[in-house]
Specification:
With about 525 residues, the chain is of the alpha/beta class. β13 and β14 form a beta hairpin.
């Protein structure tokens, strides 16, 4: 009796899946965008069961990168990178490696991490993922998640298992249409889906996960933002990213590069001018503030503004109105201001370059982007992405990033941060295309040449007391680390730790200590 009931239920699921697949394939004639495809899939799924989050990832086997097909339906997981490495420790990575579905009924317990998993942080407890296979190749993964474990979890899993091949066919058909329209291949689709004009950030490290979770929270608040960070960390990209995730995303994003404008013309550029306001003003000019009305105005390198312009900007921020040059009529403006600088603002204030009232008006919400050397866990995914992007952009042969190459990259100090990493990867691709191989000298030369472009970035300084001219370079490094550990009383991480003194990340210092046979506890006892 039970077997007959189970057989009827299985047949019913199969019929439902087949009917749903026909509806999905039929809808492809009407579905022209990724968003519409996922919305159609979402609507068809909800006819059969309830869920809290639906997501499709695309998979690029060349770079081993996962990217969102488009924005997920349902619950928002802010601190999960939209582009990431397909590691086997992740749900999608495990699905791709095993080519089998994965079901997790307690997300918070499944991932043994020092911080809450992004899905658990979003209130999700249960998730299931399925490989999307086309022509025996995995082109993506299908994910369905729930806030509470459904009573009919097994039936939902069986249903999605039956349907996933049809989803793969529909996904392949849509990507094929993109291929015809754009002239690209299946792996050349925009990694941010329909929001292709929006910037994307790559992160796997816990530090960047925490940082991006804060970014998403700030983006929703309609307040001024000050972005701090070293050269090459991506301040401009972050400003655009905040705009794309704000309530003003459908309006203009206007960028002003402060150092590129002459101080005599800056007021006219920012506020506009009336006809005849000065010699050469033959017509009325609309300023950047007006262009950014109801949108976002981004002032890059804000610390380069003179104090007079800082004062005028402060009045606009306080009163939300301004006057064009040559006019006495006040114009109201509704603009969100985002500013960025690589200058240490406290030092700039003490030197009289930045007005304190201007700084405090901007700094009510400050985001400081961590430098690359402090988030080296993100380096493999960033490197793989740049290999794929640059090889396609310049028609260069791809290279495989071996563990030795990645280790060498992680040992570099990265004074130019992500921008420097991109330049180094580009140099490696060019050297590979010329010589057909990459040797140790090629890697060292690529990093050494590009680092010369960033002399102002902080470098780890060797203490003056190290004088061992007869020792090997390895022994000099060993003594350097031991002295730093001694001063830090054996503490590796933290604001007063040895890693901070040496300008290294904790993980990099620990790797060097292991290689050189240094025991922090023994150093502490001898200190």
């Amino acid at each position: 009796m039970d077997s007959a009931k189970n057989l009827r239920a299985q047949n019913s699921r199969l019929l439902n899946a087949q009917s749903l697949s026909r509806d999905l394939v039929a809808s492809l004639g009407r579905v022209a965008t990724r968003n519409l495809f996922l919305q159609t899939l979402s609507r068809l799924f909800r006819q059969q069961f309830s869920y809290d989050r639906l997501c499709i990832n695309l998979y690029d086997p060349n770079s081993e990168l996962l990217s969102y097909f488009t924005a997920a339906e349902g619950a928002v997981v802010n601190s999960l990178s939209p582009i990431r490495k397909a590691e086997k420790t992740t749900v999608a990575g495990h699905v791709i490696a095993s080519r089998k579905p994965v079901v997790i009924t307690d997300i918070s317990q499944h991932f043994a991490e020092s911080m809450l998993h992004p899905m658990a942080e979003a209130g999700l407890t249960t998730t299931m993922a399925f490989p999307l296979i086309l022509n025996d190749k995995i082109i993506g993964t299908l994910h369905c998640s729930f806030r509470q474990k459904p009573a009919n979890l097994y039936e939902i899993m069986e249903f999605l298992l039956e349907l996933s091949p049809y989803v793969a066919v529909g996904l392949g058909a849509l990507l094929g249409m993109e291929h015809l329209e754009q002239g690209g291949g299946l792996t050349e689709v925009p990694l941010t889906g329909d929001a292709g004009e929006c910037e994307t950030f790559f992160f796997e490290s816990q530090r960047m996960r925490r940082f991006m979770a804060r970014v998403h929270a700030v983006a929703k608040l309609d307040i001024p933002v000050l972005i701090l960070g070293e050269t090459g960390t991506g301040k401009s990209r972050l400003a655009h990213y905040i705009h794309c995730h704000s309530q003003r995303r459908k309006m203009q994003f206007v960028k002003v590069n402060c150092p590129a404008m002459a101080s005599t013309l800056f007021e006219s550029e920012l506020f506009g001018h009336a006809k005849g306001a000065f010699t050469g003003a033959a017509t009325k000019r609309v300023g950047r503030f007006e262009l950014a009305h109801q949108g976002t105005l981004f002032l890059d390198e804000i610390a380069e503004l003179n104090q007079e312009m800082q004062s005028k900007l402060l009045h606009v921020l306080d009163d939300s109105c301004f006057e064009r040059v040559g006019e006495s009529v006040s114009l109201s403006v509704d603009t969100r201001l985002i500013a960025a600088t690589n200058v240490k603002m406290q030092a700039a204030m003490s030197e009289g370059k930045v007005r304190s009232d201007f700084y405090y008006r901007l700094s009510s919400c400050t985001l400081e982007i961590p430098p690359l050397r402090e988030r080296l866990d993100d380096l493999p995914a960033l490197s793989s992405f740049f290999v794929t992007q640059l090889s396609k952009q310049y028609s260069l042969p791809q290279i495989q990033l071996s563990q030795d190459i990645l280790h060498r990259l992680s040992e570099h100090h990265w004074p130019g941060n992500v921008r420097e990493l991109r330049n180094v990867i580009n140099a490696l691709l060019i050297r590979k295309s010329i010589s057909g191989k990459l040797g140790d000298e090629d890697i060292e030369e690529a990093m050494r040449t590009d680092a010369l472009a960033f002399p102002s970035a902080p470098q780890p300084k060797a203490p003056q007391e190290v004088r061992v001219p007869a020792c090997s370079l390895e022994e000099v490094e060993r003594q350097h680390i031991i002295q730093a550990l001694a001063r830090a009383r054996g503490v590796i991480s933290g604001p007063k730790g040895a890693a901070k003194m040496l300008g290294l990340s904790r993980s990099t210092l620990q790797r060097r200590m292991a290689k050189l046979g240094i025991d922090a506890a023994a150093v502490k006892e001898g200190a």
